[in-house]
Amino acid sequence: MSTYEQALEALAYLRSVTSSEPRIGIILGTGLGGLVKEIENPTLVSYDSIPHFSVSTVESHVGRLVFGSIHNVEVVAMQGRFHAYEGYSLQDITFPVRVMRHLGVNTLIISNACGGMNPLYRRGDIMVIDDHINLLGDNPLIGRNDERYGPRFPDMSEPYSRRLISLAEQVALEQGVRLHRGVYVVVQGPNLETRAEYRFLRTIGADVVGMSTVPETIVARHMGMDVLGFSIITDECFPDSLQPVHLEDVLAAAAVAEPVMTSIIASVVQRIEHH
Ligand code: HPA
């Protein structure tokens, strides 16, 4: 069965449990699930009940779709996402994004936790993603291209919508939040990087490094969706003064930044103009 046909089955199931017609999809990353509390009248749909959905293996991720509204704007959020290091194919990781498109979603907001390599970035800071570098050594579009979704060679001159980045910057300014703007490089993980690797990743032009987001962005752009990405810097990756990092520290930093990012995303959602 093709991905398209599988997505139609997932769509049929979702249509049977909710009449919601969101135009905005949100993917919540490590420790950022709290945005879900802002979603009013939520309908929760567990991934394991949706045809062809994978189930997340990471403890800090719950696995469900949350349909509801933020400031009266309908959204669908993925609470819990999949990573390449869990052993999923990039096609599996990005399947929910395909399904979102079938639901009518045309704007995707993605958040993640990352390591900061830009020396001006500090733990707990937030960055809006301006561009990315794919070092997964893999791509979710490998294989036969389905023209119903998009072209064989999708353009990547603007992976993250300039219009949405400006909106996010305007909202951050109004809220008095410092929002960096930079380049996200994705690696497979699951180990964090060596000092030599951080030095390399900084040298090739990245400000932060993480293990997610890029596959979802590529698939969303393949289908012509607009993407807005936010990274929370959970650890400082300066090769000349590198400290050991523990998962608790990563989650603690994400928890501190979470309300700030939640508030930015909530305002952005309210002000996105649909095309
Ligand atoms: N490297 C890769 N991914 C990460 C990091 C990191 O230092 N911190 C949080 N996610």
Question: Secondary structure elements and their pairing?
Answer:
Blueprint: H1 3-17, E1 24-28, E2 40-46, E3 64-70, E4 73-79, H2 90-103, E5 107-116, E6 126-134, H3 162-175, E7 179-186, H4 195-203, E8 208-210, H5 214-222, E9 226-236, H6 247-271
Parallel strand pairs: 1-4, 1-5, 5-9, 6-7, 7-8
Antiparallel strand pairs: 2-3, 3-4, 5-8, 6-9
The structure holds hypoxanthine.
Key attributes of the depicted protein:
275 residues, alpha/beta, Rossmann fold, five-stranded mixed beta barrel, 9 strands, globular, binds hypoxanthine
User: How is the main sheet built?
Assistant: 5 strands, mixed, barrel
The name of the CATH topology is: Rossmann fold
Proportion of β residues?
Answer: 15-25%
Please write the CATH class name.
Alpha Beta
Name given to the CATH homologous superfamily: Nucleoside phosphorylase domain
Bound small molecules, by name, code or SMILES, are: hypoxanthine
Structural class, by secondary structure, is alpha/beta
Helix content: 25-40%
Extended strand count: 9
Radius of gyration: 18 Å
**Distance separating the two termini:** 32 Å
Q: Low-confidence segments, ≥5 residues, pLDDT <50?
A: none
Record the strand order, biggest sheet. 5-8-7-6-9
